[in-house]
Amino acid sequence: MKRFKRQILAGLCGALLLTGTGCASRTDFPAPNTQPYVSGGATDSAATGVVCESAKFQLRWDDTEKQVQIVDRVTGAVWSPTPPNTAPLDENGEQPELHPQAHSDLIVTYFDPENLEEKQLYSYNGAVRDGNVTAKPIDKGLRVLYDFVDNEISVPVDYTVEDDCFRITVRPEEICDNGLTYVTQVGIAPFLCSLPNGSTDGYLFLPDGTGTIASPSALSKLGSDGSTRVYGDDLAIQTYDFYTTTQNVSLPVYGVKRGDNALAAIIESAPEAAFVSWKIGSTNIGHSSVYSNFHIRGYSYVESPAGFAASTMVVKLFDDAVTTEPLSVAFYPLSGEKANYVGMAECYRSNLAARTKLEKTDKSQPSVSLKYVGGVQQKAFFLGVPYTGLLKLTTLRDAAEMTTWFRENLNGSLLVDLVGFGKSGVDPGVVAGGFTVASGLGSKKDLRALQDYCNGQDIPLFLDFDVVAFAKSGGGYSRLSDATKLPNGQNVRFRYYDTVSRKGSASYYLLNRSQLAPTVERLTERYADSGLTGLSLSSLSRISYSDYATADAQVCGKIAQDVSAILAGVRQSGLQFLADAPNDYAAVNADYVIDAPLYSSAYNFSRTDVPFYQIVLRGYVPLNGTPINLSADGDDAILRCVESGTGLTYVLLRNYTNQLITTKYSFTYGCAYEQQRDGIVKTVNKLTNYYAGLQGAQIRSHRLLSDTLRVTEFDNGVYAVVNYGSAEAQSPYGAVPAHGYLTGRVAR
Questions:
Q1: pLDDT of residue 493
Q2: Domain range for residue 79?
Q3: Is residue 106 part of a domain?
Q4: Any domain includes 454
Q5: Domain C-terminal end among 178, 205, 225
Q6: Is residue 61 included in any domain, yes or no?
Q7: How far, CA to CA in Å, does 292 sit from each of 158, 189, 249, 517, 644?
Q8: Which of 491, 681, 684, 725 has a C-alpha 20 to 30 A away from that of 561?
Q9: pLDDT single digits (tens) 484-528
Q10: What is the DSSP letter of 46?
């Protein structure tokens, strides 16, 4: 009876999916899916022993334990998805078995049609214990098939070795399922980058925000179990409660340090579909780990059907197709002095440079970047009739006046970014703000005058346009034909988050992914002869979203590739590009970066933040941090800028008005130019010599001298020691005042 009920429910769920997916059936391009499941049962497997070798690695297979091992032939270090069992002997003198999760090489998440929820399978319980694992040699490695017979799911995993790394790869189109209980996510080697709880000679690294390290301390029975998406949330997925306490992951890398060895894990393929996940501090599992989890199907939310025992009010309606990108993570062993987060950053930078056009820069580091806010949308009334109009905060002439004053009073270099100068201000209206400056904020003549002044003073000037979000049709764009689609064929409506307000807002449309390149090309052509020298495409720098009306754009597919090509075109047009809080693919194409992260999300497992983002990119693109005057603790944010060699940033507006109290921008009283300018000059001038000495410099080392004292050394001899403590502290370079810093240069 139970089986019959399950079949009926599965049929109803299948009918729901068929009626809901609409245009997601892919009439204009193929819809790749998983393969039909056929149980092969236990078959002959590779013999125990060495399967293959490279110059640095030896790949071994234990057919009894169904376990892969990678041996570093130089250091002798052994890396395996199953960590070594270091649990103490029990009262009978026997060693307890590893927890099934820690003993699993794979986590498979599948959709259960009986209760319309996702559930997880661990390879140890679901396949290894029953002997449903086979291994076959392949070129440079081994293919291991994990067969979850009870759930009619099988997943082949390729383990391969190269000269400098080893890889683990899953190809979604080769996964098999029965079409009803179908695979939605794959977690790769969840305990390869792990440590036993209580370890004191290592840590886990997560790329959250600026970067954070976690100690494997026991937290509770369940510990902290979570994930954060690489390149930020998929904006095409509806959110019903919008808030943000987290930082984005901008770099697809994570790792572990174990004594004198470390492992840098780089998500080389399908990073857009990946999450950096963690299981930290669980006393039940006994190990803490960080790993990559890939979503292979897109989805949208629908209300739970009446009568179904779903645990939530809404359920995920999954797409018919799976991503075609291989899910691949490369693991680079590090040893000796390189076995730390600095070594991981250098490894990732080398990998990034090999795949992109990342090159050292000859541009000077701006001491400060000034982000001027042009206008915001405000609701008002005319003769009792409500309307929405543009509240003017800073005109182009105001911007010229402000820039002139700062140039005359600042000793250091500066950069200017004009944000919210389009027809709808910082709020999305028509695409790209109508490709023009709002008439109330200035004319072409005003823009050229400001640009001419900046050119004469060597001040980089950028005009920002939002080419991603829009609220209404206009300028040749329609909400009906140019909006991104959900898997069920509906237009995407999302709640927008911007780096000016730090808040969400009313819902908007996303521009169809196929329209992004033509839109930016139209923008560059429009300003090619205007005298403008730089564009700031802030929303394009930091976003990731799916589009189920565009081939290969499901599960955020190829967003990095698409945006990289678009930004390369901007620079080829002769315009400079300013990236705002960018993901790595935007940062490597940028002339300057602002809103570089200074903090992590401060999860409960975080031991301390480290400037990993800056270690990777400093010296390759000038970096300015998140706005000091919008930070919860401006003094602390300044210390973080000094620690990482990151320039300062301030958000300013010329004409603050109490009318802002009725908008989401009520906080902007802290951005009033008249109240902020003297303090900005005092702070920046104090650091002028420090930033001038950092031109083109990379971070050579970063050390945590204590919980509150750390030192950064650059490759040109400049150093910075920062004390976050409440008392003066001694360092190798001298005494550092409480909540202060010490900078200088060693003789070379």
A1: 81
A2: 24-83+121-178
A3: no
A4: no
A5: 178
A6: yes
A7: 15, 8, 12, 30, 27
A8: 491
A9: 988 878 888 876 544 444 444 567 899 999 999 999 999 999 887
A10: P
